[in-house]
Amino acid sequence: MSARLYWRKTVSNLMLTMTGVCAFVSVAILFLILGYLVYNGGTSINWAFFTQLPKPVGEVGGGMANAIVGSAKLLLAASVFGVPIGFLGGIYLAEFSGAKVASVVRYAADLLNGVPSIVIGIFAYSLAVKPFRQFSTLAGAFALGMMMIPITLRSTEEFLGAVPRMLREGAMALGASKWKTISTVIVPAAYRGILTAILLALARVAGETAPLLFTALGNRYWSPGWNQPTASLPVMIYNYANSAYEDWHRQAWAAGLVLLGLILIINILARTILSRGIAVPRS
Amino acid sequence: MPGAGSVAGSRSFLSKLRDGDEIARLITFLFAATVVLITILLVYELWVNSALPRHKFGLHFFVTQVWDPVMDEYGALPFMYGTVVTSVVALLIAVPLGIGASIFLAELAPPRISDTLQFFIDLLAAVPSVIYGVLGIFIVVPLMRTGIYSGLNKPFGFLPIFKGPSYGVGFLTAGIVLAIMVIPYIISVSREVLLSVPRDQREAALALGSTRWESTWKVVVPFAKTGIMGSIFLALARALGETMAVTMVIGNSPKISASLFAPGYSIAAVIANEFTEATGELYTQSLIALGLVLFILTFVLNGLARLLIVLTTQKGSGKGNQ
Amino acid sequence: MKRTTVLLAAVLAFGILLWAENALLINGAGATFPSPIYSKWFDVYQQKNANIHFNYQSVGSGAGIKQTTDGTVDFGASDMPLTDEQLSAYQAKRGSALLHFPTVLGAVVPTYNVQGVSAALNFTPDALAGIFLGKITKWNDAAIAKANKGVNLPAQDIVVIHRSDGSGTTFIWTDYLSKVSDEWKNKVSKATSVNWPVGLGGKSNEGVTGLVKQTPYSIGYVELTYAVQNNIPYGTVKNSSGNFVKADLASVTAAAAAAANVMPDDFRVSITNAPGKTAYPIASFTWLLIPAKIQEAGKRDAIKSFLKWMLEDGQAYNEQLTYAKLPKEVVAKELKAISKVQ
User: Fold this and answer.
1) For A173-189, what is each residue's pLDDT tens digit?
2) Could you read off the pLDDT of A140-177 as tens digits, one per residue?
3) What is the largest CA-CA distance in chain C?
4) Which residues of C touch B252 (CB under 8 A)?
5) Which chain A residues have a beta carbon less than 8 Å from that of C230?
6) What predicted TM-score, i.e. pTM, was given to this entire model?
7) Do B29 and A207 touch (CB under 8 A)?
8) Which of A221, B177, B282, C211 could crosslink B136 through cysteines, CB 3.0-4.6 Å?
C-alpha cells in the first residue's frame, strides 16, 4: 500500500470516528441533563411537592401543587382552543380546498409556527389580557393554543393525505357522502398520526415560559375557574432558579425533573403510537 | 369538486346540505380561515403597536446604542448585536458538531442504531427552554468563570473577543447554551437530506477509489449542501427567538462589547424582562418594535431555510443527474 | 367507548376541583423589596380569613405601577411613589385617584462578594457613586480603601450588579445616589429603570442576591432582608452626619423619624440621605397602591379590612423579617385614610 493511500485511509478512519464522537456527544447531552435533574431534584420530589402550596418567601418547604394543576389547566384549555382549529383546518386542506387556498393557509401556519414565543406573548397580552384587564388562565391558554395550531394543522393534512385511495374509493362506492367518508373512514384511518401530532404539539407548549409571563402571570394559591391568574410549572422554575434561596433551587430542580419527565413521556408515547400505526412519511 | 356530488350530477344545494357536505366544507373552511386570520392579526398588531418609535426614530432606531427609559430614548442596536452574536457563537459550535453527528447517523450507523440515536436527538429538541436556562445557571456559568475562561483567556487573551474579565454570564455562555439547543435541528434535518442523496452518487465515488470519508465529504455532503444550509438557517431562526435560556445567562446589560466574556442583551430577553413594566407609550411600543424586528428576522430565515431544504430533497429525488 | 368514559371522568374531576375553590381571589403585583413581609402577611391573613386569598406577585415596582394603571390587577405595590405624571395618567385611564399606603420601612444595602472579606466594609457616598458609574473599577481603589483601613482589599475588578427589571429598589438606590452625587444626577438620574453605565442585570431582588452570591468580587444593591436571609455580607454607608451606619431596625427607624411628623396627606415622601446621627441613608418607605374607587364590594371590603389589620396587627411581623415598623404618627394618619377607599 502506498504511503499516500495509507494516509488517506487514516484520515478517513479518523474523521469517521470523529463523526461518531459528535453523535455520541450530542446524545450524551440528553442524558447529562436528565442525570443532573435526577441527581439534584430527585430527592426533593416528595409528597409535599405534589400536594402543598408554596410557602411565604424565605421559608423552607412547601410545594408546587398549584403550579402542577395550573399547567394542566393551561394545557387542557390550550388544546380545546388550538386542536379543533388545527384539526378541522387540516381536514379542509386535505379534503375540500383548492390548491391556491391550501397554499395560503399552509403558508400562514408555517409563519405562525416560526414566530418566537415571546412575540406570541406580546400578541396574547394585547388581545387577551389588556382589553379584559385581567391576567388569566384563558389568556395563557390562548397563547399556548396558538402555538399548537400549526403542528396540528400540518400533521392532520399530511396524515389524511396519506390515507390510501382504496379506502376513499371503497367508501364512495358504497354511496357515502363526502363528509361521511371523512368522518367514518378517513379520519379513523389516520387517527394515529393525528394523535401523535397533538401529543407532540402538547409537549412543545408544555414547557413554554415566555408567553405565560405576560398572560397567566402567577398565583400563590389555587386559581379558581379560568379567569384568574394561575401558577404554572415553567414560570415557577424560572422564578425559583433565579433566586438565591437554596430551598427554592432544590424545588426548581424537582419541578424541572417533573416537567421534563412529563414532556419526554409524552414524546415517547407519541412516537411509539406512530411507529406502530400505519406507515406514513415523516415531515 | 370530486366526490359523490359530481357523480350524481347536479344535486340541489339542499340535498348536499342534508348530507352534511356543504356544512362540513363551510365549517372546516372557517377553521382554516381562522388560522390565516390569526396570523394576519398578529402581524397587524405588531405593526400598528410599534408606530410611535417608527415615527419618532425612523431608521435611527437600528443604529442607536442608547436604551434609556428615563430620557425616553430607545435604540435597537445593543439588542440586535447581542441576538446576532449569541446566535453566531451558537452556530459556530453547533454546526460542526451537528453535521458531524448527522454524517455518522446517515452514512455510518446501521439503520436501527441511526433511528434509535435520532430518537434521542428528537427528545433533546423537546427539552424546554427554561430547563436549559437552569442548567446554564448552575453548570455553564460556574464553568465559564473558571475552566473555560482560563482555557481561552490565558492563551488567546490578546484577541479582542477573549479580552477582559469573565463574569460567568455573558455572550459566550449564552452562545454555548444556545448551541446545545439548536444541535438537534441541525442533526435531524441534515440527516434527512443526507439520506435522500441517491445511492449512485456514493457508489460512483467509491468505485473510483475514494475512501469512505472522501466519498462522504467530497461527494455526498456537497450534493446535500443546500439542504444542510437550510438546516443551519432553521437552527439560526430558533436561536434568534430563544428567550428564557438566554435571559438567564446573558447578563442583561444593553451594552455592545467586543469581548465574548462581557455581559450583553438580546431582543427576546429585553422584551421578557421589561414588557410588563414599560410605562409610557413610547417605551412599550419600542419593545414591540423590537418584537417586530425579531419576527421579520425569523420569518425571512425560516422562509429561506424551507426553500433550501425543498430544493435539495427535490434534487435528490432524481430530477436530473448531476 | 372506554375513551369517552375516561374523558368524562377527567372533566368531572376537574369540575369538582374547581368548584371546591370558593375563595375570593384578589390579585396584586409589584415590588420585590417588601415581598418577604407581604407574602408573610397575606399568608397569616389568609389563615385568619380562610376565604380571602391575596395573590401577590413580586414582579418589580415598575410592573406593579404599570399593571395597576392598566387595571389588570386589583392593587399594586411600589417602592417608588408615583410621580404626578403617573398619577394623572392613572386618573385619565382608570377614572379615579390612586392612593398610596406605606406598609413598612426597609433599607437598601450594598452587598458584595469579596473573597477574604467577611466584615462589613465602609462605603462613602463617593465610593458608591464611583463604583456604579464605572469610574472606580478595582476593589483596592483608594476611595474604598481609605474608609476601610486594616482590611485587605484585593486588586480585583469590581463586578457591578444591578436590576434588569423595573425596580423600586433601583429607584431608592438611584434616588440616594442622585442626592449625593451631581454627576450621577445628571448622567443617570433616578427611576425604576435607568441607563446603567456598567454592570450585569439580575431579575428582582432575588436575582441580584443570587448573582452576587455566585459572582466573585461582585457588588450589588438589595433590600436588607434578602442580604440577611441569604447570609451575604453587606456594608455600612456614611450618612449625612458623617457616620458610617449599618442598616438595621434602629437606623432605619431613625431615618424615618424626621419625615414622620411632616408626612404629606398622600404619603409620598423620600427619606434617603435623611438627617440624623444614627439614620441609615438608604432607607425608604414602601407603598401599597390602592385605587380610590373599587367596584366590587367584596374586594373593596377585603382590601380595607386587610389594610386595617396590616396597620394594627401586621406590623408585629415586621421586625422578625428585618423591616422596621411604621412610625406611630404615620399609622394613625393611614388608618384615617382608609376611608378614602370607596
Assistant:
1) 888 888 888 888 888 88
2) 999 999 999 999 999 899 888 888 888 888 888 888 88
3) 82
4) 164, 200-203
5) 244-245
6) 0.89
7) no
8) B177
